[in-house]
Structures are given as structure tokens and as C-alpha cells.
Amino acid sequence: MGWHSMVGYGMAGLPSLLCPAGAARQHSRAMVEERLLDARTSGPWLCIDLGLADYMTPKETSRLAAQIRRLYGANRQAEQPFWIYLTELVPGSPIHRECLRMNDGFSGYLMDTTQESYLDLFPLDAIVYLTPDSENVLEDIDPKKVYVLGGLVDESIHKNLTLQRAREQSLQTARLPIREYMVKSMNTKNYYSETLAINQVFDVLSTYYKTQSWPDALKAGVSSGKGYVLPDGEESVKTPQRDNTQENSLFPESLVQARAANCRFQAEAPV
Ligand SMILES: C[S@@+](CC[C@H](N)C(=O)[O-])C[C@H]1O[C@@H](n2cnc3c(N)ncnc32)[C@H](O)[C@@H]1O
């Protein structure tokens, strides 16, 4: 059975026996699923690298599972969602167990999960590993690229961990343009950090993809606790760079299908 026929979103146009509220819920769920499935073929694509499990304590692993839940929830709400891959997700591993334990409906999440690495799924030159320690600044989101996030919660910071990993794998890297658009705020603890949780990074990416404005995007994802704020009057400055006329497909269809076959497709989305 192909993945299109595995999901129930074709129900939207059928006569419904549900009450109006139930029918509206079903309709909006169908719209969400349709948008997600569009992103699966057209991008943008986001990959969470779960090959970093050895660097986390059980408590950090639980926090990562909660961040995956928040990220997925935010993506379902997005007008222009990303298609999400969880790579190196080993069945029965601590992060898999925590995702199942803490995230209702995890096994039905509309995303691809695989034990394989992103290196086996995507062309190397399409991968951009996002890491706070990169010397490159992310300027725009290119729907032809796959953005990889380190599946890591590091309470005691592992500086350069993902940067090193990406360099060893000869991948492009980029960091969010926090210091380019934000300024340090007065804070009593004198604490400043450009390292965000993966769900916060996602909020930045998702808002940027929708608004094309880095100030708006950073405002959505960088909490005041990080010690950075927008300078006064710096919101809603657009950074138009995306060429909407470009062909909106990431890779040849054969590659999309090869990837789809490699990844376990999670058929039913949670309510
Ligand atoms: C909690 S951070 C982990 C930081 C860790 N020290 C490292 O080496 O990546 C989780 C992930 O979110 C992404 N991330 C966090 N802050 C970022 C930033 N400012 N720019 C780009 N990516 C960021 C990276 O993919 C990172 O691996």
C-alpha cells in the first residue's frame, strides 16, 4: 500500500454523519494533514538527529522527548509546516521509550522515523546542520535543503559537539542570526546564551518561513531568559530572499520515493 492511501485525509469531501462541530474538527484535521503531506514532497524539510543519545542523561532524554512533542505540535499548527524526519531512532532505545511514554499518539505522528542516518537519506550537499557554534549565519530557508537539528538537551553544555560532528561528515553548517538581529539585554545574572532548545529553534524557522522576517522569527523563538532582545522598533522587517518562482521540489521524484521506502511512515495523526 502506498503512503498516500495509508492516511485518512481523503475523507474531507465525503458526506459526514458527524455533528457540525465534529465535522469541522475532522475538516481542519484533514487540512492539517494535507499541508503536512504537501511538505513531505515539496519541503521545507527538518530532520532531528537522534544519534547523540550517548551524551544525555535519562532526565535530559525525557526533556528531549517533551521538546519533540512541542515541536511536532507547533508544526501541526503552522500554515506552512515542515516535513519532519527523526533519524537514528532505534526502537526500544531510551529516547524511543520516552517518546512513547510522554507523547500521546507518538506512534501516529505524521512524520518519518528511521534508524538510518540523514547521511543515508539525503544528498550531502542538500544537508545543512544547524549548530549554535557554526561560523556561518543562516540567511534564508531554502526548501531544497534539509535542515538538521541535534537531538540533544545538554544541561552541561557540550560546546561544539554538533559542529564537530557536521565537520567530520563534511556538511554545511549554519547558526541562527541571533547576534545579527538582537542585542544583549540588561540582566542581573549577566547570562547570555545563543543555544536554544530544538522546539525554540523550530519556532524561529517556522516563523521565518512564514513571515520572511528574522526579527519576527527570533522574537517567536528566543525567550527573554536567553539574555537577548530585539532593539526597539526592529520587528516586522522583512528579509525577502526566497525566489518563489523556483521549482519547489527538493529532489527528483525517484529520490523522494526511495526515501519514503526507507522510512517508516507514521500513518495516523493524533487528534
Ligand atoms: C540544545 S542545542 C544543543 C547544543 C549543543 N552544544 C550542540 O553542540 O549542538 C540543540 C540543537 O538545537 C540547534 N540549535 C540550538 N541553538 C541554535 C542556534 N543558535 N543556531 C543553530 N542551531 C541551534 C542545534 O541543532 C543544536 O544541536
TrEMBL record:
PROSITE patterns with a match to the protein in the record: SAM_MT_TRM10
One of the protein's GO biological processes: protein insertion into mitochondrial inner membrane
CDD domains in UniProt: Trm10euk_B
Annotated Gene Ontology cellular component terms: cytosol; nucleoplasm; TIM22 mitochondrial import inner membrane insertion complex
MF annotations from Gene Ontology: tRNA (guanosine(9)-N1)-methyltransferase activity; tRNA binding
Keyword Plastid attributed: no
UniProt keywords, alphabetically: Coiled coil, Methyltransferase, S-adenosyl-L-methionine, Transferase
Name of the featured protein: tRNA methyltransferase 10 homolog B
